[in-house]
Amino acid sequence: MQTMKDLIAEHPFFRGLDPEHLDVIAGCAQNVRFQAGEFLFREGDEADRFFLIRHGRVALSTYIPERGAITIQTIGAGEVLGWSWLFPPYRWHFDARALEVTRAIAFDGKCLREKCQADSKLGYELMRRFASIMMDRLQATRLQLLDVYGGRS
Amino acid sequence: MNTMSAEPIQAVDPMAPRWYRILQRRRENHDTFTLELTPEDGGAPMAFAPGQFNMLYVFGVGEIPISISGDPSQPQRLIHTTRAVGTVTKAMSRLGKGDLLGVRGPFGTSWPLAEAEGKDVVVVTGGIGLAPLRPAIYQLLAQREKYARIVLLYGARTQEDMVFRRELERWSARLDVEIFATVDRATSGWRGNVGVATTLIPHAPFDPDDTIALVCGPEVMMRYTVAALEKRGLEHEQIYISMERNMKCAVGFCGHCQFGPQFICKDGPVFRFDQVRAIFGKWEV
Ligand SMILES: Cc1cc2nc3c(=O)[nH]c(=O)nc-3n(C[C@H](O)[C@H](O)[C@H](O)COP(=O)(O)OP(=O)(O)OC[C@H]3O[C@@H](n4cnc5c(N)ncnc54)[C@H](O)[C@@H]3O)c2cc1C
């Protein structure tokens, strides 16, 4: 039987994290499961969690009047979802909806923020990992904006 | 007949076009079409290696390089997939069954399929970049036992812009190849991944220590792809790209396609990334 600590250690986002830190953050984590079509969170709601996706796929979308919900990005197994819990005002910027049955580890944002305050080494480690994800997503968004498959002229 | 080769084939008479008749024209998407050609002189089919290209001449309009997108084990069906972007490609898009095209070739280097034997092969491609890679995929699948994992990562602007959709579905149904597709923009009905092709790289199932990557797409997409592959742990020597800068003669005389010290037409279009790293991404060299 795998413990929460094992599950977290297995996820690429936390690969190589110190065992003591894994113990600390496991106390803020919980296993969650979403049916296809179910929302993980809604735009504007309080951002009190983030998710390590273990199986399944989640669509991030935003609602545009007269166009409906537009999917900006999908997030799948091995990826991390949500950083709005890191910074005030702690509100989600998008809707997140499971496209298929999705299993994830959900972290309580407040709990984690408190642990990071108490242990700056853990705080740094977490920020470093999130910053790297943010940089990847920024690069991907830039490429997306370039519309490279559009007209050549 | 098995005439499959991983080594580039030399054109018999590189400067003389041979006439081919269009047997079939298939629409791939709003601006891309596939032509199936047969030699008008009834002579021997053109053997080629995956990654090579031909110079296609539209009578009275001009001549352009287009990769061969067909199956190397069936050279009697010469197949090219073209996106209509300018003078010659648009004129070509108006041709139909029974029309004639001049063909010179094949030219250029090929994908390193022999070198990839025993390894994982990851194909990363976007848009019409799948066309020059399709012959490589046919050959990899025809000789499936020679390779470890085969992974195809394909990005397109939208679902409607994808080329070879029927084939992508057929390959997806196979258990011995893993296909991940993504679109930059989700249109209604698309239930797959949304995001650029490079977002598929971090979690794709291949062993970075023992992988050969074959990359073809718009140049900027290839730059980001190389960076994502590097981040995953691949060395430049494990990455091959196909460059599609403009060219004229196709035999290394005219200098039109000179890319630093290299000529795309004869030293490329397929390059190992370390050979072009210094000049890749530069607008003019
Ligand atoms: C080795 C090689 C293989 C190729 N394989 C294919 C293929 O399989 N299918 C395919 O559709 N195209 C392929 N191309 C690109 C194709 O040759 C060009 O699109 C074509 O030459 C454009 O000619 P045109 O007269 O229609 O356009 P032009 O009227 O000459 O140009 C129209 C517009 O397209 C731009 N353009 C022209 N050529 C390119 C290019 N190579 N890359 C980016 N922008 C360009 C021009 O700058 C201009 O803005 C390949 C190119 C090379 C070098």
The spatial strand order of the largest sheet of chain B comes to 10-9-8-7-11-12-15
Uncertain residue segments of chain A: none
The CATH homologous superfamily of the largest domain in chain B is called Nucleotide-binding domain of ferredoxin-NADP reductase (FNR) module
CATH uppermost class of chain A: Mainly Beta
- Derived structural class of chain A: alpha+beta
What sequence of helices (H) and strands (E) makes up the elements of chain A?
HHEEEEEEEEHH
Terminal residue distance of chain B: 43 Å
How do the strands line up in the largest sheet of chain A? Answer: 1-8-3-6
Name the largest protein-protein interface in this structure: A-B, 26 and 28 residues
The top level CATH class name of the largest domain in chain B: Alpha Beta
* Helical amount of chain A: 25-40%
Low-confidence stretches of chain B: none
Number of helices of chain A: 4
Q: By CATH's scheme, which homologous superfamily of chain A applies?
A: Jelly Rolls
**What is the makeup of the main sheet of chain B?**
7 strands, mixed
Order of helices and strands of chain B: EEEEEHEEHEHEEEHEEEHEH
Q: What is the topology?
A:
The complex is a heterodimer of chains A (153) and B (285).
Chain A: H1 4-10, H2 19-26, E1 29-34, E2 39-41, E3 49-55, E4 57-64, E5 68-76, E6 80-81, E7 95-98, E8 102-108, H3 109-118, H4 120-146
Antiparallel strand pairs in A: 1-8, 2-7, 3-6, 3-8, 4-5, 4-7
Chain B: E1 18-29, E2 32-39, E3 53-58, E4 62-67, E5 78-83, H1 87-93, E6 100-107, E7 120-126, H2 130-142, E8 150-156, H3 165-173, E9 178-183, E10 193-194, E11 211-216, H4 219-232, E12 239-242, E13 258-259, E14 262-263, H5 264-267, E15 270-272, H6 273-276
Parallel strand pairs in B: 7-8, 7-11, 8-9, 9-10, 11-12
Antiparallel strand pairs in B: 1-2, 1-6, 2-5, 3-4, 3-6, 12-15, 13-14
The structure holds flavin-adenine dinucleotide.
